[in-house]
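dumping this here so i dont lose it
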């Protein structure tokens, strides 16, 4: 028996999510909240002050803070690795091969983890493709049965 009463929390123009804080309660957010309570400064006011100290007063700590905030930390790049892998093997055997290469010292653990992640992603794409194909075949078979 269907429910004839509308839900109390129906999705309407008056029942929309409110804009949330841009960040979670991370240390940075807590710091800016405390700074606002103590000095009445917003985050923009704080960075204006730091920029002023860094540029005009040549304060070393302010320069360092500005650089940390403005210049992204470079991501470590793994060296290029060349090896042979049998793409005809099942994915779990390919992963076992990578584990063996790491165990033998032919690949670093970081390199092995990255390659295993790539194999897992490829397996996921393959599985999704197979599921989609099988679903289409089942739908076609069902249509054939229903049309008789």
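and the seq i came up w/
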């Amino acid at each position: 028996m269907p429910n004839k009463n509308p839900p109390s929390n129906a999705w309407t123009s008056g029942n929309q999510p409110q804009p949330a804080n841009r960040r979670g309660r991370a240390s940075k957010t807590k710091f800016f909240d405390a700074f606002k309570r103590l000095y009445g400064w917003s985050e923009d006011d704080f960075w204006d002050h730091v920029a002023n100290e860094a540029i005009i007063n040549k304060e070393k700590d302010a320069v360092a803070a500005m650089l940390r905030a403005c210049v992204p930390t470079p991501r470590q790049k793994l060296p290029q690795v060349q090896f042979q892998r049998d793409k005809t093997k099942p994915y779990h055997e390919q992963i076992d091969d990578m584990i063996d290469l790491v165990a033998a010292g032919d690949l670093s653990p970081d390199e092995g983890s990255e390659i295993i992640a790539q194999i897992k992603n490829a397996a996921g794409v393959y599985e999704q493709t197979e599921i989609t194909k099988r679903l289409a075949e089942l739908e076609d078979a069902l249509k054939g049965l229903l049309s008789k």
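Residues 91-147 form one domain.
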